[in-house]
Amino acid sequence: QWFANLNKSRLFAMYKFGLVCFVLAASVVLKNDAAQLTASQKSKIYGSVLSAGMECMRDFPLSLDHIQAFRNKKAPNDEVAKCFTHCLYKKLGLMDDSGKISEKTAKAATKKVFKEGDEMFTKVEELISRCIHVNDAETSDGDKGCDRAKLAFECFIEHAKELDLDVDL
């Protein structure tokens, strides 16, 4: 019995570790200008992502291979990882139920952390603008949203560095 509980605890700890790693991959943070983020802003970002991620892990538990891929800024190409990403983005307000990037809800979510017109707000808005084209991409899962979430992740990673929003994993 103790051994079974230990394995469950270890498994939960592994998933929690995976979620923390994914939080780092999913959160856009200024690498070179991290001092621009206040403690309150960091807390809001990580709190939102952690809460949403824990909910998504229930339905889409990430494996260590998924975590390693995200750490390498690669979106895993399997259903669990893609659907986890969609779930997370949807809960954060970046995407709607069909996996389309929503400028309106993304802007509202960004306003919860940054003041409209601030440099970070403008950069995040530009990142969303550069990746909105994934809404028009043909996907094999239709309106399920998982394939499109993978495309959005790849786009965010690609353009974050150009905008000085490089993700520090």
UniProtKB/TrEMBL annotation:
Annotated GO MF terms: odorant binding
Record carries keyword Hydrolase: no
GO cellular component: extracellular space
Pfam families the record matches: PBP_GOBP
Keyword Signal listed: yes
CDD domains, per database record: PBP_GOBP
Protein name: OBP9
Taxonomic source organism: Ectropis grisescens
